[in-house]
Every structure is written in structure tokens, then in C-alpha cells.
Amino acid sequence: MLDNRKSRLPLAPGVGYKPQHLQGILNAPGDVSWIEIHAENYMGDGGRPLAQLRHLSERFAISVHGVGLSIGGEGRLDAGHLARLKHLLDWLSPASFSEHLA
């Protein structure tokens, strides 16, 4: 698990993260205090996306938003997807998590 000292979203501006904006956010964050990511973009085994996320989490509170569980869908929950999501959340320990219902 990351040692993320940002355990709550601050009452301040946040932005949705796009990898192409990494240097801009790091070099001149302005009033940005937290970053929102889509869980599915970070559910892999490593590489550049997770390295960037680790770096961001050292400076900003992180909000994770999932779009792939389909909780309100007709089918069963995907156990593999749920396990990968749990692994990400356990590792990152984000300030908040939300998920689409369908």
C-alpha cells in the first residue's frame, strides 16, 4: 500500500487526470489539490501508468472513479474485474472512490 497522506478530498479544486497533462500538473498545479482517475486505466500490473499515479499520489489527494463494474446491469459482477479493482484500491488507498451503477 502506498503511504498516501492525502486521505480525504480537500474542499478545493480538483481535475480529471489525463497522462498527457502530467508535466503541466506537476510543474504548475495552480489551485489543484486533488486528481480524479478512472480505475480501469490503472488496473494493470505496473509500467508507466502506475509509476505516474504513484508520483501524483505523493503530491495530490486521489479520487478513483470506476466505470466498469456495471453494478446495476443484468449480468453477474465480474469477479476478476472486482479483484483487480480491490488490488488497485488497496495499493493506492485513495481519498475517495465512486463507481457507475450501470
Describe the structure.
The chain has 102 residues and is α/β, with parallel strands linked by helices. The chain has one domain. Helix content is 29%, strand content 18%. The protein has 3 helices and 4 strands. It has a 4-stranded parallel β-sheet, with helices on one face. The longest helix has 14 residues. It starts with 13 loop residues before the first strand and ends with a strand. The model has no long low-confidence stretch (mean pLDDT 90).
List the helices and strands and how they pair.
Blueprint lengths: L13 E3 L5 H6 L6 E5 L9 H10 L3 E6 L12 H14 L3 E4 L3
Summarize the structure.
By secondary structure, this protein is of the alpha/beta class. It is built from three helices and four strands; from the N terminus they run E-H-E-H-E-H-E.
Total strands: 4
Number of domains: 1
Order of H and E elements: EHEHEHE
Question: How much strand?
Answer: 15-25%
Mean pLDDT: 90
Distance between the amino and carboxyl termini: 29 Å
Helix content: 25-40%
